[in-house]
């Protein structure tokens, strides 16, 4: 029998926090404006070891998450879970926010609210994007700016402030996102009330 050599597949790079990032706290949080971010959209397949919210206010193009394509239609919010493969590109200049936080930070938020389990961070059958209306965008803009400012200031209790502010934003997104199907028992599904 002749031997068969499988062609080598290119590896998908993984970006994550380093051990030194956790020396002061396991609750790593980072937020930046997309327009000011160096490198802009990453048009190559990659994954992260952290949660990533891509909040698009301006730009057009495509966002591929786990090999499924979604339109970049601002205003939109994309939810990327740790280890999901994604890439995105924009045909026009982008504006918005990139919000990244460690698994430990998210678990800290989850301990405070079961509603956060309904966020579309990777559940099967749940769209990882939420397209917002203009009125909703106006409501979120000051919340996002306050979150960005708090992260930059890092005054006393800043991590608690970030956690509380992010939880408010995520809970408001939960209200807007369709409820995912949940398994109650084997082979039985119901809509979350």
Fold and architecture overview:
Strand 5 (61-65) and strand 6 (68-72) form a beta hairpin. 24% of the residues lie in helices and 29% in strands. The protein has a single domain (23-177), classed as Regulatory protein AraC (Jelly Rolls). The radius of gyration is 18 Å and the shape is globular. It has 3 helices and 12 strands, in the order βββββββββαβααββ. With 193 residues, it is α+β, with helices and mostly antiparallel strands. The model is unreliable at 1-9, 19-23 and 183-193 (pLDDT under 50). It has helices at 103-110, 134-153, 158-176, and strands at 14-15, 29-33, 47-48, 51-58, 61-65, 68-72, 76-80, 86-90, 95-101, 129-131, 181-185, 188-191.
Name of the CATH first level = Mainly Beta
Oligomer: single chain
Count of separate DSSP helical elements: 3
Rg (C-alpha, Å): 18 Å
Please state the structural category: alpha+beta
Q: Would you tell me the overall average pLDDT?
A: 76
Terminal Cα separation, in Å?
59 Å
Spell out the helices and strands N to C. Answer: EEEEEEEEEHEHHEE
Strand content: 25-35%
Unreliable sequence segments: 1-9, 19-23, 183-193
The CATH topology annotation reads as: Jelly Rolls
Q: Mind summarizing the main beta sheet?
A: 5 strands, antiparallel
Major beta sheet, strand line-up = 2-9-4-7-10
CATH superfamily: Regulatory protein AraC
Cα shape: globular
What fraction, in percent, of the residue positions are helical? 10-25%
Query: What CATH architecture would you give?
Result: Sandwich
Number of beta strands: 12
């Amino acid at each position: 029998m002749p031997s068969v050599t499988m062609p080598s597949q290119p590896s998908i790079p993984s970006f994550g926090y380093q051990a030194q990032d956790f020396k002061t706290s396991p609750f790593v949080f980072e937020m930046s404006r997309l327009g000011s971010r160096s490198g802009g959209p990453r048009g190559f397949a990659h994954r992260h070891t952290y949660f990533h919210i891509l909040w698009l206010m301006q730009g057009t193009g495509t966002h591929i998450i786990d090999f499924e394509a979604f339109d970049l239609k601002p205003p939109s919010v994309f939810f990327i879970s740790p280890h999901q493969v994604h890439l995105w590109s924009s045909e026009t200049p982008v504006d918005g926010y990139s919000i990244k936080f460690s698994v430990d930070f998210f678990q800290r938020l989850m301990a405070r609210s079961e509603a956060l389990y309904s966020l579309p961070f990777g559940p099967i059958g749940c769209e990882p994007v939420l397209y917002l209306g203009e009125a909703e965008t106006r409501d979120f803009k000051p919340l996002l700016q306050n979150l960005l400012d708090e992260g930059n200031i890092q005054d006393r209790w800043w991590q608690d402030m970030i956690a509380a502010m992010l939880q408010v934003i995520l809970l408001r997104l939960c209200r807007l996102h369709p409820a995912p199907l949940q398994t109650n028992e084997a082979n039985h599904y119901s809509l979350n009330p």
